[in-house]
Fold Gluconate 2-dehydrogenase alpha chain.
Amino acid sequence: MAEELDPVDVVTVGVGWTGGIIAKELAQADYDVVGLERGGERSTEDWLTVHDELGYAMRYKLMQDLSRETITFRHEPEDTALPMRRYGAFLPGTGVGGAGVHWNGVTWRFLPYDFEIESETIEEYGEEAIPDEMQLQDWGITYEELEPYFDEFEYTAGISGVAGNIDGEIQDNGNPYEGPRSRDYPLPPMMQSPPLEVFAEGADAAGYEPFMQPSANLSETYENPDGINLGQCEYCGYCERFGCEWGAKSDPTVTVLPAAEDTGNFELRTHSNVVELLYDEDEEEVTGVKYVDSRTNTVYEQPADVVALTAYVLNNVRLLLLSGIGEPYDPETGEGTVGKNYCYQNMGGSATGFFEDEEWNLYMGAGALGAAFDDINGDNFDHEDEEFLHGGSVSISQTGERPIANNPVPEDTPSWGSEFKEESLEYNHSSLSISCQGAVLPYQDNYLDLDPNYTDDYGLPLIRMTFNWHDQDYALAEYASDVCEEVMEEMGADQVDASGGLEGDFDIIPYQTTHNTGGAIMGADPDESVVNNYLQCWDAHNLFVPGASAFAHNSGYNPTGTVGALAFRAAEGIEEYLEEPEVLADPET
């Protein structure tokens, strides 16, 4: 029997960037907000002098316990899915701050093309350019509408960068392909290290337009609009899979959550695992959530006027399916929306260069210390003669080569023995890698649903992922690999090992990226999407579902900047809804 608690105005399911932003915005507007987080508390004190590569980078201390909850995976709808028993292609996390604690800090805005991708593709190349089973669709919002929210996120987080386009005027040294922004980044870009200079020179020689990558690793100390003070990056090289001891990598625990707590209107409850959204189908609303205190196994029901589903992508979709909200997607007919348009990230294009007469200090670095070019991203180049749509950003990142995982050797080197050791020492500080982070576009047979065979620790069905590469992905990766090889040769490497693209089926075993998207996508049509452009659920008018689960496809970028913008947009929608519940409930608004 569940214990029913006193109702609140807003409850968030998950307390990462999306849950933290919504908590801050609504608490500052004088609403009572409860944040439910299934993991434990975290703060900068937890990371003091904890440069533990073995524990955090190799043994995944900040990640989800796969013995209690995992996913099942298969390549095709007719296959039997099996559970992911060890960490592989991606690393779902847990705990206060979510992935915003252990991320690298790369903070892009998606391109204007991304938000109107179907319309712009048809206008430029015709409907025949879109393969029959590719479910390309516009997002129901334009870049211009979303720009103020991008700006709000960047100034809240203290992003370091250099603008390429301010109000339509192209700026020096920035990304000339980015959408127009209302003002520059709040902080200057990070320092350009010698390897980044080599990349910039090589990219320029190859005819591309390089610039410093936008970063949530702060180039200077900073006070954000909420009066929160953040530190300056020390370039220690311990960002990805680690928390930052200096508060110099912007994350929810040092930005939006302290601001929410300062209001006195926000309550954080940790070890609170939400297992169901309480849904009244007749009224098309949620009345609250059911959760389990994982320390005591006590079950609670938390009533709320608004529920914000702000967990990780896969968990957002799973909770919608477990709670019977919306129509599950059917890959045979293409009908239904919940679970539709699951996308991953195409990391198939890369090149590593080995330099005989160069040496750099590669142990120093930061998660988002990098340089990039966008010439082959989005529709920034002519696709008329290509066998793929979209593209990706090409970049070099000096994240800090930690000693356990850092053994770069030429591809013809044995994987063990004396020659491997000699080559590891030879190229320890004399090799550089560049890669293309490519878009993945939605296909009818890539989706999420509930597994009929496997359950979690509470007996609830696991989320099942059905995903594989398509001709689009292979063609994009091959093209990107050629570009990376060309640039690396211009960088002066004595030996270049290029990836050549993607090989075989998608492999769930090696880590690639944690950028899962889709499954609860946004749009203008309730028959084609789960949420509207305020991230409000079509089937439950007081349920909002921000996060990367709302992405109708995945772009050639890291998702967090766009996730942050959508969270601020959702917070505005929630506030409007609380003031006048009918104003957003009508699909026509």
Observations:
- The radius of gyration is 23 Å.
- Residues 3-160+191-585 form a domain with the FAD/NAD(P)-binding domain fold (CATH 3.50.50.60).
- The chain has a mean pLDDT of 95.
